[in-house]
Amino acid sequence: MSEQPYGPDSLATDVPHPTQPLSLTQALQLPRIVIEDTLPVIDGGLFAAKAIIGQPVTVTSKVYADGHDKMAVNIRWRAADEDTWHSAPMHELGNDSWVGEFTPTSVSRYVFRLEAWIDQFGSYRYELDKKFGAGVPVDLELEEGRIHLVHAAERSQHEQRQQIESLLGQLEQGDKDEKVALLLHSETAYLMKLADNQAFLSRSVEFPLDVERELAQFASWYELFPRSITDDPARHGTFNDVHSRLPIIRDMGFDVLYFPPIHPIGRAHRKGPNNSLTAGPDDPGSPYAIGSEDGGHEAIHPQLGSREDFRNLVKAAADHGLEIALDFAIQCSQDHPWLKQHPGWFSWRPDGTIRYAENPPKKYQDIVNVDFYAPDAIPGLWLELRDIVLGWVNEGVKIFRVDNPHTKPLPFWQWMIGEVRNQHPEVMFLGRSVHQACHDGAAGEGGYS
């Protein structure tokens, strides 16, 4: 099936249902040139393919039409915030396969499309060369060449028109061999390419392409619990304590300094050492049991330091060539403010209790999950989670490691990541490895790096 909108100029939309026969009018609107099997394209362009800034994007496609005419195929592309299209020619590989490339120069959403048309003068030159070389009379072909030049001059302006008219003058004065040489000359081909009327032009649909930073392709991550950076086991580590580790981490060759959740930790059902169900008064609990009277996902654990301390650490890390990545874990302790402020964001059992998180045989008694499709959770929960991410982006965080992305709805990721990257295309989302290949692929379609 052709990927371009119907009609030589992509104007027709009244395409019949596949079970209905074509009318003559509809058949005449169908493209003469077929563009199909274009890559890189995900699900026909429903999702964006991925690329890295500064690295060539190789585009391949099957392009063909009836007959033996030569064709020309171009890639056209632009960044989403650009008005001007860029263009580069594709080259035929044989068997109707074409290849070309372009290099994105900004971190942004891009779109690209293919344009193909019958190269009428190129087809003419090919036939003239073959016939003349075989000793076939070409008197009529020479007249056809003159007509090609006349029409090209009519389509051209200023200097280009003068150059083609000069060729016409030379054509009238030369003998047969000189006329053939003139029509086959590379300069003539160049001028005619500029004046090409792009006969039977077909365009593909526009395909999306997300261009990301180099760190999305490869980065070395160092995981660190800020609360553990202390020389006194009785004292909770802080953001300020991490500063002394930055040169060491940099010198080991790491690019990213990754923190597990840095938010307040609940006390209800807090875990003790080695995942024990009984916590002592000084046990800090799991950082994944997010939320207490001190706040939720938007807040910082008070023992780690202030928001200003966090900003200073982000800047200091950047000064050492490191980027801070935060864990985005969509789960709550039973002390999370949302349970009181938005009880409708959770699923409650008939006896009024809430089910804790389980992944048998694993049990997480200190964690409860939100219900993305609870009636009261739409749209409030979705918007709140988006705004939490945007809040941390405003604090200088550009990389998020997402815990268990396969346990959250794919439509949510597609929407939320799109919302964030539309405002901040440099932001990256990396999902913790999941175990189902289909989920991995769908996560990539949803916007994960």
Tell me what you see in this structure.
Residues 31-213 form the Alpha-1,4-glucan:maltose-1-phosphate maltosyltransferase domain. Keywords: Hydrolase. The chain has 449 residues and is an alpha/beta fold. The chain has helices at 24-29, 120-133, 139-155, 158-173, 176-184, 186-194, 239-242, 246-251, 307-319, 337-341, 380-394, 410-423, 437-445, and strands at residues 34-39, 49-52, 57-64, 71-79, 86-89, 91-94, 97-102, 108-118, 199-203, 207-212, 221-223, 256-259, 323-328, 356-359, 362-368, 399-402, 428-431. Strands 2, 4, 5, 8, 9 and 10 form a 6-stranded mixed sheet that branches. A hairpin with a 2-residue loop joins strand 6 and strand 7 (97-102).
| Order of helix and strand elements from N to C terminus | HEEEEEEEEHHHHHEEEHHEHEHEEHEHEH
Quaternary organisation? single chain
CATH superfamily of the largest domain: Glycosidases
Q: Count structural domains.
A: 3
> What share of residues is helical?
25-40%
Query: Briefly, what CATH class of the largest domain?
Result: Alpha Beta
CATH topology of the largest domain: TIM Barrel
Question: How far is the N terminus from the C terminus?
Answer: 30 Å
CATH level-two architecture of the largest domain: Alpha-Beta Barrel
Query: Which residues form runs of ≥5 with pLDDT under 50?
Result: 1-13
Q: What's the total count of β strands?
A: 17
Q: SS-based structural class?
A: alpha/beta
Rg for CA atoms: 31 Å
Sheet with the most strands, sense and barrel status: 6 strands, mixed
Please report the number of helical segments: 13
- The coarse overall form would be elongated
Q: Report strand %.
A: 15-25%
Mean pLDDT over the residues: 92
